[in-house]
Give the backbone structure.
Amino acid sequence: MTFKDLRDYIEFMKRKGKLIEIDDEVSVDLEIAEITRRATYAHLPPLLFKKIRNYENWKIISNIFYSIESLYEIFGTNRLESISEKFLSSLSDIPITIIDKIKSLREILGLGKIMPKSKSPSFKEEKELDLTKIPAIKTWPKDAGRFLTFSITITKDPDTGIHNLSVYRIQILNQKEALVHWQAFKRGSMTAKKYLEKGITKMPVAIVTGVDPTIVFTAASPVPHGLDKYMFAGILRGEGVDVTELDNQLLVPSHSEVVLAGYVDLNDTRLEGPFGDHMGYYTPPDYYPVFKLEKAYIREDPIFHVTSVGKPPLEDAWIGKGVERIFLPFAKMIVPELVDMNLPEYGLFTGIGIFSIKKYYPGQAKRVMMSLWGMGQLSLLKIIIIVDDNVNVHDINQVLYSIAANVDPKRDIWVIENVLTDSLDPSVPFPPLGSKLGIDATRKLKEEMGKDWPEEVSSDEKVVEKAQQILSKIIKRGQLS
């Protein structure tokens, strides 16, 4: 499925009868966030708010990622793995690593239809538009103010020219200034360090809001370093993203509803927060750099895209499930014994990950843990559970059984201290350094246990057949009370 822009997606959902249009007047101060959260919890389809108090001529869209079904609609398939499987199958068999495969992508696919394409913009410069005139929302009562919650921050690597698109929360300070919450290990922050190394303190940045949901998903995804996110969005869309070059040499989606162009002053950091985040707690104030607005662009009758975060499962949880499915083939290429993975909605995406493997040798589960903790966003996982390939990782009861039956805590629990964690984790005393837990819930080989693993019980096939016949008769006769 390919959408030209956010409006194309909205019309698609309207035709399906899956768009909720709200005509009641609502406030950006807590009301939109509360309505959105409750709608997401109830798996209601996207909400289009048509009357925003104090923001005449604006509309707000929220709850686009309302459940796993929303991803099936956006990508046009209920088997999300097929998207990346198709992409990987197009790569040459000659490169032997993922990096080699990425580098060979241009040669294999040429500069074909997945590459970004220069197009005239749908937006126009608006000299009267400033940050305070944008309907950014306040999500929780004790938030520091109004935030852009589903805007995309666009930067460019000064060495490679690769564009990065990421979703960071943006706290509005005044008409021309805002705070960008990029954590130390995020691409934006890492790119900022490259600018500083070159002695450049004014880093070009564009903040866009209201684009094709596939681009939003890409911005929120852990795309491998070295791969331009515009190109990855092209892979997911099946065709390149229409882009326009701004005066600061950044490419932005041509059909964005709002574009804020300027720079981040790397010498100007101020206290950001508190903010009620996806962990369900307020993030304490901390210092982050200031974005300084130079030019603003807007479409006629703009539609602003927001999300409401809090305790799961909200929109970020369903994006996480999409990432889980789409990136599984990439993970299998790096960890060949990997069978399946589950990033549970209530596991906070970076909190708990469950992985099944085909086990061949002693110590394999811990080796897999180390590999997973070295992979992009998975490096933030606080707890990794490894189970055998016959365990359904999406059935929590099967996973609990594996832990209860297969784990000796002294041997199979692995605690690693002073490693990178999610800095939003409220349990970590000195973020971003914390600890990690690995649980090897696989059946143990003789080398790991010192003796043979006991034989698993199984029924006699003939007895099973007879038992099923008798029980089927009972059910048909309705003898069950």
Remarks:
- The CA atoms of residues 83 and 326 lie 7 Å apart.
- DSSP finds 15 helices and 23 strands in the chain.
